[in-house]
Amino acid sequence: MTGAHVLEPHRVVPVVVLHDAGSAGDLGAALASGGLPVAEVTFRTAAAPDALRTLAERGDLLVGAGTVLTPDQVDIAHDCGARFVVSPGLSADVVRRCQEIGMPVLPGTSTATEIMRALELGVGTVKFFPAEQCGGVGMLKALSAAFPDVRFVPTGGIAADSAAAYLDLPPVLAVGGSWMVPPDLVRQGRWDEVAALCAETVARLPPSP
Ligand SMILES: O=C(O)C(=O)C[C@H](O)[C@H](O)COP(=O)(O)O
Fold this sequence. Notes:
The protein is of the alpha/beta class. The protein is built from 9 helices and 9 strands. The chain has a domain at about 10-105 and about 160-200: Aldolase class I (TIM Barrel, Alpha-Beta Barrel). Helix 1 runs parallel beside helix 9. About 45% of the residues are buried. 2-keto 3 deoxy 6 phospho gluconate binds near residues 42, 87, 129 and 157. Homotrimer.
């Protein structure tokens, strides 16, 4: 289960909460100019589908849907141009719908049991969520020792100065987080500062394995 994954070239996934789809274009430009041309648009706001569509239509970003809780949301995300789906937990219905339509899916897991369930469903790359609150790097090392073929995308509570410790672990495909797209900056349209946080994140990445 270690084939190429759509997130392969992207070691950091900005997790975005947008309340105004009209600002999606500016946000996309900030991410791209800051060197992180990828976004997980969380389905926590009514603006998410339109924001996702706007970002996907730019063509220079890899855009996915986050906080996907139902198969219907998988279909909406697909229609809006999402290239991957992320869930906070493991829903067999969400996973199966993604598999039916060929959508890469990252179900959230934080226990060995959930990882085993993901494997039973044929998923070999999972989100580790909420990473910091669930024991961070130490917990992930312990879990991944039992699942040498599983790859992880730790997300939740990670910051610019803690991302590298995860990325240094071979089973970590990428890390996700909102630290470079803080809600206040996004709401206030402070795109230069978002771009600067992205660039700072890129500058602090450890060398690629
Ligand atoms: O619900 C989902 O599917 C999510 O993607 C949740 C996000 O991963 C976290 O909310 C991001 O965590 P922070 O970096 O701590 O803000």
